[in-house]
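Dear Dr. L.,

I hope this message finds you well. Following up on our conversation about the binding site, I have prepared a predicted three-dimensional model of the protein together with adenosine-3',5'-cyclic-monophosphate. For your records, I am including the exact sequence and ligand specification that went into the calculation, followed by the structure tokens. Please feel free to forward this to your student if that is useful.
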Amino acid sequence: MSERTLVLVKPDGVERGLVGEVIARIERKGLRLAAMDLRIAERSVAEEHYAEHKDKPFYGDLLDFITSGPLVAIAVEGPRAVTAFRQLAGGTDPVEKATPGTIRGDFALETQYNLVHGSDSPESAERELKLWFPDL
Ligand code: CMP
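The resulting structure of the complex is given below.
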């Protein structure tokens, strides 16, 4: 059964010219792009997106970073899309957790600048897709 997940190519990924690389990996896996948008995230959207981290010490820096420049929001669709993309992305810490062969494992060094976001569950995906693509 098909499901959807929200992928963000964060401002570091756009700045470094890695949007095409991320999209190529999504497509090669067999997942489809259902919607895509290059935009600067509004602070209110970023706050809601990362609400579960609001008590973490890195929350302020995370909001500053995610709103610091253009990002690419993508609705990705396919069988087990949530898990499939999280495997493509690799673990949150690009050195300790993400293995080579994953997006973060191949291209990132710091947890804050880990290039991509992928929803962590189908429930999160539904919430996040409503937030980023209300008309989808
Ligand atoms: P993401 O998958 O978008 O979800 C939460 C984000 O918070 C995560 O990727 C990282 O970019 C960031 N993050 C998580 N842990 C830390 C940390 N210890 N220091 C800085 N940023 C973090």
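In brief: The chain has a mean pLDDT of 98.

With kind regards,
A. P.
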